[in-house]
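agent> step 3/5: call structure_predict on target 'Rhodopsin domain-containing protein' (Ophiocordyceps australis).
agent> reason: downstream docking stage needs a structural representation; sequence fetched in step 2, passing through unchanged.
tool.input:
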Amino acid sequence: MADPGAEAAAQIKAFQQFSTEAWTLLAVAICVTSLRTYARVRAVGVRGLQADDVLVWVAATLYCIETGLAYSVGAVAHGLANNDMPPEYRAALSPDSAEHHQRVTGSKIQLAGWSVYSTLLWVLKTSLLFFYMRLTAGLSRSYLVRIYMGFGFLGISWIIVMSNLYLSCRPFHKNWQINPDPGNVCYPAVSRQIVWVYFAFNITTDLFLLSIPVPMLWKSSLRPVKKIGLILLFSGGIFIIICATLRCILIVTVSLFIS
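tool.output (status=ok):
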């Protein structure tokens, strides 16, 4: 039988490590965004800033909120939500208990986290499209058409993922219901439906965004070395796709193991 004290100590250590990592990544993101803005102001002045320069700060603000929510999952809810409980445990858990409150709170935080996370990603994708508009200014109109198609695709896909988040579990309060078991679709932390829908539209929108600059750079008259370097830079989205895939697999695997 596991030592409760050792388990508690391990959880505290894991939360401390997560907190350090989360706040460090946020600090790095703010620093990089600040440097980007500084470089842009030096280049074009404050009046010359474009939509993508503003949207990166909207994204930075959302990232601050998301990090705060992620931190509160451990600090307030102690990593708990309405998942990972056998039926008999659910039935025995008193609504007046501290754990019941933590699980309800944790589920609500998870729901808010998904909302902010999706909006953050889609704001960054929108910022990239505005950057592409600057990048392709004066070139073939076909690029502009693809960019406008991208705006439409992003708008529709964001509505779909948010609708799936808020409408897949009905009635809505089941998203934090403890007993009776509301089912996996109502577990905000590990819902397979939420995860797969986000994954599908996150990947397809990323692939569409990649399809805009890479062909343009390939056809350009830049020196081969510079051309390949820029293509590799824009193809960094492939790394993001790999990370998103691994994240999806991890969440789904955990939810299947628990169920």
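agent> step 4/5: record observation. Residues 12 and 241 are 31 Å apart (CA to CA).
agent> proceeding.
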